[in-house]
Amino acid sequence: MTSPVRVGVLGLLIAVLFGMLGLRLWTMQVTEAQAYNERADQNQVRVVFTPAPRGDIFTADGVKIAGTRSALAAIVDLALVGKDERDELAQNLAAFLDDPALPASAIMDLLLGPNQGLQITVAKDLSEDQAVFLMEHRESFPGVNIIPQPIRTYPEGELGAHVIGYIGRPNEQDLERDDVRGTDFVGKAGVEKTYDALIRGTEGVIEYRVDARRKVLSLQGEEQPTAGGSLILTIDAGVQAQLQESLRLGLVQARRLEMDERKGVLKDKSIPRLLVEALEAERTEAAEEAAKVAEAAAEGDGADEAPLPPVQPIEVDPAKALGSLYPGLPIDENGVCVPVQRVSILLGGTASLSGREPRVARLISIDEVGGNLTATVTIEGETFTVKDNQSFAGTLQVLAVAEDELIVYHKDKWCPVRTIGVVMNPNDGSIIAM
Protein backbone atom coordinates (compact mmCIF):
# COMPACT_ATOMS: atom_id res chain seq x y z
CA MET A 1 0.00 0.00 0.00
CA THR A 2 1.43 3.35 -1.10
CA SER A 3 1.86 6.24 1.24
CA PRO A 4 -1.01 8.33 -0.23
CA VAL A 5 -3.39 5.39 0.24
CA ARG A 6 -2.29 4.88 3.82
CA VAL A 7 -2.82 8.53 4.56
CA GLY A 8 -6.28 8.35 3.02
CA VAL A 9 -7.29 5.30 5.08
CA LEU A 10 -5.98 6.88 8.27
CA GLY A 11 -7.89 10.08 7.53
CA LEU A 12 -11.05 8.09 6.91
CA LEU A 13 -10.72 6.31 10.25
CA ILE A 14 -10.17 9.59 12.03
CA ALA A 15 -13.21 11.06 10.32
CA VAL A 16 -15.36 8.07 11.35
CA LEU A 17 -14.22 8.34 14.97
CA PHE A 18 -14.95 12.05 15.09
CA GLY A 19 -18.32 11.38 13.47
CA MET A 20 -19.22 8.82 16.13
CA LEU A 21 -18.09 11.19 18.89
CA GLY A 22 -20.14 14.03 17.42
CA LEU A 23 -23.19 11.80 17.09
CA ARG A 24 -22.89 10.76 20.74
CA LEU A 25 -22.53 14.35 21.89
CA TRP A 26 -25.57 15.35 19.86
CA THR A 27 -27.58 12.47 21.37
CA MET A 28 -26.66 13.46 24.94
CA GLN A 29 -27.36 17.15 24.42
CA VAL A 30 -30.55 16.86 22.38
CA THR A 31 -32.19 13.45 22.49
CA GLU A 32 -31.40 12.49 26.12
CA ALA A 33 -31.09 15.96 27.60
CA GLN A 34 -34.40 15.74 29.49
CA ALA A 35 -33.48 12.43 31.12
CA TYR A 36 -30.11 13.74 32.28
CA ASN A 37 -31.70 16.89 33.63
CA GLU A 38 -34.20 14.84 35.65
CA ARG A 39 -31.41 12.66 37.02
CA ALA A 40 -29.44 15.73 38.02
CA ASP A 41 -32.48 17.18 39.75
CA GLN A 42 -32.98 13.94 41.66
CA ASN A 43 -29.39 14.02 42.82
CA GLN A 44 -29.97 17.52 44.20
CA VAL A 45 -33.10 16.66 46.23
CA ARG A 46 -33.17 15.16 49.71
CA VAL A 47 -36.45 13.68 50.97
CA VAL A 48 -37.52 13.75 54.63
CA PHE A 49 -40.58 11.76 55.71
CA THR A 50 -42.87 13.28 58.36
CA PRO A 51 -44.96 10.96 60.56
CA ALA A 52 -48.74 11.04 60.36
CA PRO A 53 -50.91 11.69 63.43
CA ARG A 54 -52.55 8.49 64.66
CA GLY A 55 -56.31 8.42 64.74
CA ASP A 56 -58.21 9.17 67.95
CA ILE A 57 -59.87 6.48 70.06
CA PHE A 58 -63.29 7.18 71.61
CA THR A 59 -65.57 5.30 73.96
CA ALA A 60 -69.16 4.53 73.01
CA ASP A 61 -70.38 7.64 74.85
CA GLY A 62 -67.99 9.93 72.94
CA VAL A 63 -65.18 10.33 75.48
CA LYS A 64 -61.73 10.57 73.88
CA ILE A 65 -59.36 8.19 75.67
CA ALA A 66 -56.47 8.40 73.18
CA GLY A 67 -55.56 11.38 71.02
CA THR A 68 -52.64 13.11 69.36
CA ARG A 69 -51.10 16.53 69.82
CA SER A 70 -48.74 18.26 67.44
CA ALA A 71 -45.11 18.77 68.45
CA LEU A 72 -41.83 19.71 66.79
CA ALA A 73 -38.86 17.39 66.63
CA ALA A 74 -35.25 17.89 65.56
CA ILE A 75 -33.86 15.16 63.35
CA VAL A 76 -30.40 14.70 61.91
CA ASP A 77 -30.20 13.44 58.34
CA LEU A 78 -26.93 11.52 58.47
CA ALA A 79 -26.61 11.59 54.68
CA LEU A 80 -26.22 15.37 54.89
CA VAL A 81 -23.52 15.36 57.57
CA GLY A 82 -19.90 14.76 56.68
CA LYS A 83 -17.82 12.57 58.96
CA ASP A 84 -15.54 15.51 59.75
CA GLU A 85 -18.56 17.58 60.85
CA ARG A 86 -20.10 15.15 63.32
CA ASP A 87 -17.99 15.94 66.34
CA GLU A 88 -18.68 19.68 66.08
CA LEU A 89 -22.38 19.00 65.43
CA ALA A 90 -22.60 16.83 68.56
CA GLN A 91 -20.99 19.58 70.66
CA ASN A 92 -23.33 22.25 69.26
CA LEU A 93 -26.46 20.13 69.78
CA ALA A 94 -25.47 19.28 73.35
CA ALA A 95 -24.90 22.95 74.16
CA PHE A 96 -28.17 23.96 72.51
CA LEU A 97 -30.37 21.28 74.08
CA ASP A 98 -28.71 21.55 77.52
CA ASP A 99 -30.10 18.15 78.53
CA PRO A 100 -28.05 16.27 81.17
CA ALA A 101 -29.47 13.01 79.82
CA LEU A 102 -28.12 13.76 76.34
CA PRO A 103 -24.49 14.94 76.55
CA ALA A 104 -22.26 15.39 73.52
CA SER A 105 -20.89 11.86 73.89
CA ALA A 106 -24.38 10.36 73.71
CA ILE A 107 -25.24 12.42 70.63
CA MET A 108 -21.96 11.34 69.05
CA ASP A 109 -22.88 7.70 69.66
CA LEU A 110 -26.12 8.31 67.77
CA LEU A 111 -24.32 9.97 64.88
CA LEU A 112 -21.81 7.13 64.64
CA GLY A 113 -24.37 4.37 65.22
CA PRO A 114 -25.47 1.64 62.82
CA ASN A 115 -28.20 3.78 61.24
CA GLN A 116 -25.91 5.48 58.73
CA GLY A 117 -27.86 7.11 55.90
CA LEU A 118 -31.02 7.35 58.00
CA GLN A 119 -32.66 10.14 59.94
CA ILE A 120 -32.33 10.03 63.72
CA THR A 121 -34.33 12.03 66.24
CA VAL A 122 -32.20 14.01 68.70
CA ALA A 123 -34.88 16.18 70.35
CA LYS A 124 -38.63 15.96 70.77
CA ASP A 125 -41.30 18.46 71.72
CA LEU A 126 -39.24 21.55 70.88
CA SER A 127 -40.60 25.02 71.49
CA GLU A 128 -41.18 27.30 68.52
CA ASP A 129 -38.25 29.49 69.57
CA GLN A 130 -35.93 26.49 69.63
CA ALA A 131 -37.10 25.35 66.21
CA VAL A 132 -36.62 28.82 64.71
CA PHE A 133 -33.12 29.07 66.18
CA LEU A 134 -32.06 25.78 64.62
CA MET A 135 -33.43 26.81 61.23
CA GLU A 136 -31.71 30.19 61.35
CA HIS A 137 -28.33 28.68 62.22
CA ARG A 138 -28.07 25.86 59.71
CA GLU A 139 -24.35 26.48 59.30
CA SER A 140 -23.81 25.43 62.93
CA PHE A 141 -26.24 22.50 62.72
CA PRO A 142 -25.62 20.79 59.35
CA GLY A 143 -28.11 18.07 58.49
CA VAL A 144 -30.55 19.12 61.22
CA ASN A 145 -34.17 19.50 60.12
CA ILE A 146 -37.31 20.39 62.04
CA ILE A 147 -40.33 18.22 61.34
CA PRO A 148 -43.79 18.01 62.91
CA GLN A 149 -44.00 14.92 65.08
CA PRO A 150 -47.31 13.86 66.64
CA ILE A 151 -47.26 12.71 70.26
CA ARG A 152 -49.83 10.26 71.65
CA THR A 153 -51.91 11.64 74.52
CA TYR A 154 -54.36 10.03 76.93
CA PRO A 155 -56.86 12.65 78.17
CA GLU A 156 -58.48 10.26 80.65
CA GLY A 157 -55.24 8.90 82.08
CA GLU A 158 -55.29 5.16 82.77
CA LEU A 159 -58.92 4.70 81.79
CA GLY A 160 -59.06 1.66 79.52
CA ALA A 161 -55.27 1.51 79.25
CA HIS A 162 -55.29 -2.29 78.95
CA VAL A 163 -57.78 -1.99 76.09
CA ILE A 164 -55.95 0.80 74.25
CA GLY A 165 -52.51 -0.82 74.44
CA TYR A 166 -49.43 1.17 73.46
CA ILE A 167 -47.18 2.09 70.52
CA GLY A 168 -43.45 1.66 70.01
CA ARG A 169 -40.66 1.12 67.52
CA PRO A 170 -41.18 -1.80 65.10
CA ASN A 171 -39.55 -5.17 65.68
CA GLU A 172 -38.33 -7.59 63.02
CA GLN A 173 -41.83 -8.93 62.43
CA ASP A 174 -43.25 -5.42 62.01
CA LEU A 175 -40.52 -4.52 59.52
CA GLU A 176 -41.72 -7.28 57.21
CA ARG A 177 -44.66 -5.03 56.36
CA ASP A 178 -44.15 -2.94 53.24
CA ASP A 179 -45.51 0.24 54.86
CA VAL A 180 -43.28 0.17 57.97
CA ARG A 181 -39.76 1.58 58.37
CA GLY A 182 -37.41 1.38 61.31
CA THR A 183 -38.10 4.98 62.35
CA ASP A 184 -41.89 4.55 62.49
CA PHE A 185 -44.13 3.98 65.49
CA VAL A 186 -46.56 1.05 65.33
CA GLY A 187 -49.14 -0.45 67.66
CA LYS A 188 -47.62 -3.01 70.03
CA ALA A 189 -50.67 -4.13 72.04
CA GLY A 190 -54.42 -3.67 72.43
CA VAL A 191 -56.51 -1.91 69.80
CA GLU A 192 -53.43 0.15 68.89
CA LYS A 193 -51.99 -3.07 67.46
CA THR A 194 -55.18 -4.70 66.20
CA TYR A 195 -56.24 -1.67 64.16
CA ASP A 196 -52.75 -0.27 63.49
CA ALA A 197 -53.18 -0.19 59.71
CA LEU A 198 -56.39 1.83 60.12
CA ILE A 199 -55.23 4.44 62.63
CA ARG A 200 -51.61 4.96 61.45
CA GLY A 201 -52.42 7.35 58.64
CA THR A 202 -50.20 8.29 55.69
CA GLU A 203 -46.88 10.01 56.29
CA GLY A 204 -45.94 13.27 54.62
CA VAL A 205 -42.89 14.23 52.58
CA ILE A 206 -40.59 17.26 52.71
CA GLU A 207 -38.17 17.78 49.81
CA TYR A 208 -35.02 19.87 50.25
CA ARG A 209 -32.74 21.05 47.45
CA VAL A 210 -29.09 20.38 48.28
CA ASP A 211 -25.79 21.16 46.58
CA ALA A 212 -23.03 18.79 45.55
CA ARG A 213 -21.82 18.61 49.15
CA ARG A 214 -25.35 17.73 50.29
CA LYS A 215 -25.84 21.06 52.02
CA VAL A 216 -29.46 22.20 52.18
CA LEU A 217 -30.09 25.17 49.90
CA SER A 218 -33.85 25.57 50.02
CA LEU A 219 -37.19 23.90 50.61
CA GLN A 220 -38.40 22.51 47.27
CA GLY A 221 -41.77 21.05 48.20
CA GLU A 222 -43.86 19.63 51.00
CA GLU A 223 -46.72 17.13 51.17
CA GLN A 224 -48.66 17.17 54.42
CA PRO A 225 -49.27 13.87 56.25
CA THR A 226 -52.78 12.47 56.43
CA ALA A 227 -54.14 11.59 59.87
CA GLY A 228 -55.29 8.04 60.53
CA GLY A 229 -58.87 6.97 61.04
CA SER A 230 -60.54 7.16 64.45
CA LEU A 231 -61.97 4.27 66.45
CA ILE A 232 -65.17 4.16 68.48
CA LEU A 233 -65.15 1.35 71.05
CA THR A 234 -68.16 -0.36 72.61
CA ILE A 235 -66.79 0.45 76.07
CA ASP A 236 -68.71 3.02 78.14
CA ALA A 237 -66.37 5.48 79.87
CA GLY A 238 -68.50 5.80 83.00
CA VAL A 239 -68.92 2.07 83.53
CA GLN A 240 -65.24 1.43 82.78
CA ALA A 241 -64.15 4.10 85.28
CA GLN A 242 -66.43 2.67 87.95
CA LEU A 243 -65.15 -0.85 87.32
CA GLN A 244 -61.50 0.18 87.53
CA GLU A 245 -62.12 2.21 90.69
CA SER A 246 -63.94 -0.71 92.28
CA LEU A 247 -61.03 -3.01 91.49
CA ARG A 248 -58.56 -0.51 92.92
CA LEU A 249 -60.51 0.00 96.13
CA GLY A 250 -61.11 -3.72 96.44
CA LEU A 251 -57.40 -4.41 96.24
CA VAL A 252 -56.65 -1.70 98.81
CA GLN A 253 -59.27 -3.11 101.17
CA ALA A 254 -58.00 -6.64 100.66
CA ARG A 255 -54.45 -5.60 101.46
CA ARG A 256 -55.62 -3.69 104.52
CA LEU A 257 -57.52 -6.70 105.84
CA GLU A 258 -54.55 -8.90 105.06
CA MET A 259 -52.15 -6.73 107.03
CA ASP A 260 -54.55 -6.41 109.98
CA GLU A 261 -54.98 -10.16 110.21
CA ARG A 262 -51.32 -10.84 109.79
CA LYS A 263 -50.47 -8.38 112.55
CA GLY A 264 -52.75 -10.25 114.91
CA VAL A 265 -51.28 -13.62 114.06
CA LEU A 266 -47.65 -12.75 113.62
CA LYS A 267 -47.33 -10.46 116.61
CA ASP A 268 -43.58 -10.27 117.13
CA LYS A 269 -42.75 -13.31 115.01
CA SER A 270 -41.55 -13.35 111.46
CA ILE A 271 -41.93 -16.12 108.91
CA PRO A 272 -38.24 -17.17 109.16
CA ARG A 273 -38.56 -17.31 112.96
CA LEU A 274 -41.63 -19.53 112.74
CA LEU A 275 -39.76 -21.88 110.42
CA VAL A 276 -36.80 -22.02 112.83
CA GLU A 277 -39.13 -22.80 115.74
CA ALA A 278 -40.80 -25.53 113.69
CA LEU A 279 -37.40 -27.06 112.92
CA GLU A 280 -36.42 -26.97 116.61
CA ALA A 281 -39.69 -28.65 117.53
CA GLU A 282 -39.07 -31.40 114.97
CA ARG A 283 -35.58 -31.96 116.38
CA THR A 284 -36.91 -32.12 119.95
CA GLU A 285 -39.54 -34.64 118.93
CA ALA A 286 -36.94 -36.73 117.10
CA ALA A 287 -34.62 -36.65 120.14
CA GLU A 288 -37.43 -37.76 122.46
CA GLU A 289 -38.33 -40.60 120.12
CA ALA A 290 -34.68 -41.71 120.00
CA ALA A 291 -34.47 -41.61 123.82
CA LYS A 292 -37.55 -43.84 124.11
CA VAL A 293 -36.04 -46.37 121.72
CA ALA A 294 -32.75 -46.40 123.67
CA GLU A 295 -34.58 -46.80 126.99
CA ALA A 296 -36.60 -49.71 125.67
CA ALA A 297 -33.41 -51.37 124.46
CA ALA A 298 -31.73 -50.92 127.87
CA GLU A 299 -34.65 -52.58 129.66
CA GLY A 300 -34.37 -55.67 127.46
CA ASP A 301 -33.15 -59.08 128.74
CA GLY A 302 -29.84 -58.90 126.90
CA ALA A 303 -31.12 -60.91 123.94
CA ASP A 304 -30.21 -60.00 120.47
CA GLU A 305 -31.73 -56.66 119.83
CA ALA A 306 -33.21 -55.38 116.58
CA PRO A 307 -31.02 -52.75 114.93
CA LEU A 308 -32.06 -49.18 115.52
CA PRO A 309 -33.79 -47.51 112.57
CA PRO A 310 -31.52 -45.25 110.51
CA VAL A 311 -31.55 -41.61 111.41
CA GLN A 312 -33.69 -39.64 108.95
CA PRO A 313 -32.89 -36.03 108.01
CA ILE A 314 -35.19 -33.60 109.73
CA GLU A 315 -37.25 -31.46 107.35
CA VAL A 316 -39.93 -28.87 107.91
CA ASP A 317 -43.03 -28.55 105.76
CA PRO A 318 -43.70 -24.78 105.42
CA ALA A 319 -47.41 -25.43 104.86
CA LYS A 320 -47.57 -27.25 108.20
CA ALA A 321 -45.26 -24.90 110.08
CA LEU A 322 -47.08 -21.79 108.92
CA GLY A 323 -50.54 -23.23 109.32
CA SER A 324 -51.61 -20.43 111.66
CA LEU A 325 -50.62 -17.87 109.07
CA TYR A 326 -51.63 -19.59 105.88
CA PRO A 327 -54.42 -22.07 106.63
CA GLY A 328 -54.81 -24.15 103.50
CA LEU A 329 -53.24 -21.58 101.20
CA PRO A 330 -51.01 -22.23 98.19
CA ILE A 331 -47.54 -21.17 99.35
CA ASP A 332 -44.09 -21.68 97.95
CA GLU A 333 -41.06 -23.29 99.62
CA ASN A 334 -40.32 -20.03 101.45
CA GLY A 335 -43.77 -19.78 102.94
CA VAL A 336 -44.75 -16.93 100.62
CA CYS A 337 -48.34 -16.80 99.46
CA VAL A 338 -48.69 -17.45 95.72
CA PRO A 339 -51.43 -15.50 93.89
CA VAL A 340 -53.81 -17.87 92.13
CA GLN A 341 -56.25 -17.70 89.27
CA ARG A 342 -59.77 -18.91 88.78
CA VAL A 343 -59.54 -22.24 86.96
CA SER A 344 -62.00 -23.53 84.37
CA ILE A 345 -62.02 -27.28 83.64
CA LEU A 346 -63.87 -28.57 80.59
CA LEU A 347 -65.66 -31.92 80.66
CA GLY A 348 -63.10 -34.64 79.96
CA GLY A 349 -60.28 -32.13 80.14
CA THR A 350 -57.60 -31.16 82.64
CA ALA A 351 -56.32 -27.96 84.24
CA SER A 352 -53.32 -27.03 86.38
CA LEU A 353 -53.88 -25.75 89.90
CA SER A 354 -51.35 -23.27 91.25
CA GLY A 355 -49.67 -23.81 94.59
CA ARG A 356 -46.47 -24.84 96.29
CA GLU A 357 -46.64 -28.14 94.42
CA PRO A 358 -48.54 -27.87 91.10
CA ARG A 359 -51.48 -30.25 90.83
CA VAL A 360 -53.55 -31.41 87.87
CA ALA A 361 -57.34 -31.65 88.07
CA ARG A 362 -59.38 -33.77 85.62
CA LEU A 363 -63.14 -33.39 85.18
CA ILE A 364 -64.52 -36.93 84.79
CA SER A 365 -68.26 -36.35 84.53
CA ILE A 366 -71.14 -33.99 85.24
CA ASP A 367 -74.44 -35.48 86.39
CA GLU A 368 -77.80 -34.18 87.56
CA VAL A 369 -78.70 -35.26 91.08
CA GLY A 370 -81.93 -34.06 92.67
CA GLY A 371 -82.28 -31.28 90.12
CA ASN A 372 -78.74 -29.98 90.77
CA LEU A 373 -75.61 -30.51 88.71
CA THR A 374 -72.75 -32.34 90.40
CA ALA A 375 -69.26 -32.83 89.05
CA THR A 376 -66.85 -35.69 89.55
CA VAL A 377 -63.26 -34.52 89.51
CA THR A 378 -59.94 -36.21 90.29
CA ILE A 379 -56.88 -34.46 91.70
CA GLU A 380 -53.65 -36.44 91.89
CA GLY A 381 -55.56 -39.75 92.00
CA GLU A 382 -58.12 -38.63 94.61
CA THR A 383 -61.77 -38.40 93.47
CA PHE A 384 -64.26 -35.74 94.60
CA THR A 385 -67.96 -35.27 93.85
CA VAL A 386 -68.85 -31.59 94.21
CA LYS A 387 -71.62 -29.08 93.54
CA ASP A 388 -72.01 -25.29 93.48
CA ASN A 389 -70.26 -23.39 96.33
CA GLN A 390 -68.85 -26.59 97.84
CA SER A 391 -65.38 -26.68 99.37
CA PHE A 392 -63.13 -29.63 98.64
CA ALA A 393 -59.51 -30.77 98.49
CA GLY A 394 -58.64 -28.56 101.42
CA THR A 395 -58.06 -25.33 99.51
CA LEU A 396 -60.55 -25.33 96.64
CA GLN A 397 -64.01 -23.83 96.30
CA VAL A 398 -66.52 -24.56 93.53
CA LEU A 399 -67.64 -21.38 91.82
CA ALA A 400 -70.03 -22.99 89.35
CA VAL A 401 -70.95 -26.34 87.82
CA ALA A 402 -72.20 -26.06 84.23
CA GLU A 403 -73.30 -28.71 81.76
CA ASP A 404 -69.81 -29.08 80.32
CA GLU A 405 -67.57 -27.11 82.66
CA LEU A 406 -66.44 -26.82 86.27
CA ILE A 407 -65.09 -23.52 87.61
CA VAL A 408 -63.07 -23.56 90.84
CA TYR A 409 -60.78 -21.23 92.75
CA HIS A 410 -58.59 -21.38 95.83
CA LYS A 411 -60.11 -20.41 99.17
CA ASP A 412 -57.41 -17.87 99.67
CA LYS A 413 -57.90 -15.19 102.31
CA TRP A 414 -54.79 -13.20 101.55
CA CYS A 415 -53.71 -13.85 98.00
CA PRO A 416 -56.04 -12.07 95.56
CA VAL A 417 -57.79 -14.33 93.09
CA ARG A 418 -56.80 -12.97 89.70
CA THR A 419 -59.67 -13.12 87.23
CA ILE A 420 -60.49 -11.47 83.96
CA GLY A 421 -64.04 -10.23 83.74
CA VAL A 422 -66.17 -8.16 81.44
CA VAL A 423 -69.33 -6.10 81.79
CA MET A 424 -71.71 -6.71 78.90
CA ASN A 425 -74.62 -4.71 77.55
CA PRO A 426 -77.73 -6.86 78.21
CA ASN A 427 -79.40 -5.51 75.07
CA ASP A 428 -76.86 -6.48 72.44
CA GLY A 429 -74.12 -8.36 74.31
CA SER A 430 -71.43 -5.78 73.54
CA ILE A 431 -68.62 -5.30 76.05
CA ILE A 432 -68.96 -1.99 77.89
CA ALA A 433 -66.19 -2.53 80.48
CA MET A 434 -63.39 -4.99 81.05
From TrEMBL:
Protein keywords: Cell membrane, Cell shape, Cell wall biogenesis/degradation, Membrane, Peptidoglycan synthesis, Transmembrane, Transmembrane helix
Major localisation: membrane
Gene Ontology BP term (one): peptidoglycan biosynthetic process
Membrane topology: Single-pass membrane protein
Gene3D superfamilies named in the record: Penicillin-binding protein 2a (Domain 2)
Pfam family, one: PBP_dimer
Origin species: hydrothermal vent metagenome
Keyword Transmembrane helix: yes
Compartment(s): Cell membrane; Membrane
Name of protein: Penicillin-binding protein dimerisation domain-containing protein
Residues spanning the membrane: none
Positions of the Penicillin-binding protein dimerisation domain: 50-217
A GO molecular-function annotation: penicillin binding
Lineage of the species this protein comes from: unclassified sequences, metagenomes, ecological metagenomes
Gene Ontology cellular-component annotations: plasma membrane
Lipid metabolism keyword on record: no
